[in-house]
Amino acid sequence: MKIKHLSLVLLTLVLVFGCSSKEKSEKPKIAVVVSTLNNPWFVMLAESAAENAEKLGYEAKIFDSQNNPAIESDNFENLISSGYDAILLNPTDSDGSISNILKAKT
Q: Which residue segments constitute the domains of the chain, with CATH numbers given?
């Protein structure tokens, strides 16, 4: 139960601070980027976040960084160029993840 509550809080923060204000005809897109989907806890976290985002009217997609900072960086590049409105991140590496967040913020 605490996990679902935590994912709801994280999702709410991302939606409040990370969403674009531009109007679109389609559903806003949110990405759930996790460090790995080989751990049941992260699978549950990602699925719960995506499920709650969809309940709130977002199109949600889960991305697996496979515990690899380079894959996480590639995911961010693809998400930015694809025009995602928000990114919910479980970081793979603190240093690399900071640079990815800064790229997405600009």
A: 2-16+28-105 (3.40.50.2300)
